[in-house]
């Protein structure tokens, strides 16, 4: 399988043709406008996409199947930018399913597909590759298995170091970043980056809330709900993000 050192419009056209996609569908796949793809292809080797789009093209090629790679190699034969595969496997460690159960802690995880999302208050476009993220916050029950297996310090709201039964399906609280990182390492995971967390929560279009742009207390446990305590993690089905988390 090949890799591309620097993408130009020529390699962009070859990848689109290898994937057998129209300009419109390829643009949507990359999270950009069809006009931009047309511009790249028209200028060929004379144009180099921006780094964020270079990364998007890298991920699109890397996630393609063998037939696409074979067609791409034939279409780019002789191009100095296309190199033999340097080795290594940066693919996801799981099958490409929209949801699965992690083999480490058995928790459900959702796929956040590669693409551009609008980040921060300025809604700046940021490219991220595929990743999985937990569907629900870590519960007291999940965390109690970690504590039992590792003798890690229990949260302060567990009387006598044991979680009350009525809180087992509530999100664990009174944990530090170090506690969370230790849990993730035990489970065979990593904590999400700030951009991964934001994309999973807001979706690709930069919504203020997971469900849109209007504050709706019925969709989450907020101060306005007046509950003044945690609630089971599965309470707010109508408040899920576009990725189902």
UniProtKB/TrEMBL annotation:
Residues 12-41 form the HTH cro/C1-type domain. InterPro entries: Cro/C1-type_HTH, CTDL_fold, Lambda_DNA-bd_dom_sf, Sulfatase_Mod_Factor_Kinase, SUMF_dom, SUMF_sf. Pfam families: FGE-sulfatase (PF03781), HTH_3 (PF01381). Transmembrane segments: none annotated. Coiled coil: none annotated. CDD domains: HTH_XRE. It comes from the Bacteria. Residues 77-97 are annotated as: Disordered. This is SUMF1/EgtB/PvdO family nonheme iron enzyme.
